[in-house]
Amino acid sequence: MKAVVMDTTGGPDVLRLTEIPEPEPGPGQISVDVAAAGVNFIDTYHRTGLYPIELPFVPGLEGAGTVRARGEGVDDFRPGDRVAWTRVAGSYAEVVVGEAGSFVPVPDAVPLDVAAASMLQGLTAQYLSASTYPLSDGDRCLVHAASGGVGHLLVQMAAARGAEVFATVGSAEKEDLARRAGAAHVIRYDQVDFGDAIEGIAGPRPLDVVYDGVGKPVFHRSLELLRRRGMMVTFGNAGGPVDPVSPLELMRQGSLYLTRPTLFDYVAGPAELRLRSAELFDAIGAGRLDVHIGARLPLAEAATAHRMLEGRATTGKVLLVP
Questions:
Q1: Domain range holding 192?
Q2: 19-36 core/surface letters (b: 16 or more CB in 10 A; e: else)
Q3: Is the pTM of this model over 0.85?
Q4: 255 in the same domain as 134
Q5: Which of 65, 148, 228, 313 is surrounded by the most beta carbons within 10 Å?
């Protein structure tokens, strides 16, 4: 089968399309024909070596497709079933194999490419808004990179929970996307200091929570916008990893909470994964959640997909399609 393989860490050019043996499911596993694989920042962290991996490596953790075969002991799925996943390594390929408990059923109301586009980022937005800091009516939140894959979904979920959403974006196109997603206030970080703009609207330190997938460039200014005992949720490093923070800094800023969550601790077992994904797919199928797919590229253009993501030249989700 064809797959994107990296033999060394580095820039996008280390990603190459090649032929490798097709994997077979072992006991407790299924194999899946990949309809679409999601491209995520964690893939770039694997590629650069920020998150260590064993080489050679097939990137990609997310996708959707149809079951090809099942190994011994698997009763949940049958060949032809529609499934999606968000923690199965090797997804930049025509076929992927993983533990059956890592897959979830996709309802007929949700197209497979939409399922692929919504798993990692949609589940991330779901746990951030419902569990990490459970938003409720009247809360004020800031969503950085609000037109990106997580940001676009998180704005919608936050608005649906009754929050007043402040959003940062970097272009007129992205500004319009964030407003249509439900952001009450959209700030162009390329034109103004986002902190000054937010305080100009709502006064000093007005926010209950900041959801930050950008990292280093916005982290400290974001802390300065939080109310006493507010929460800083840093869940990504698109602009570079945050420097170490002294606990005394959190005290000086008003007894703030700081958390660095990851999806995999919020879908720690098959039951929680299915529960969160079912809620996500219900919202998509009912038309309450719009999943924006910004680009569909063939596997051979995986390097281009990474350049687009790292260059912040995307709105919504980037998919690789075998």
A1: 121-263
A2: ebeebebeeebbbbbbbb
A3: yes
A4: yes
A5: 148
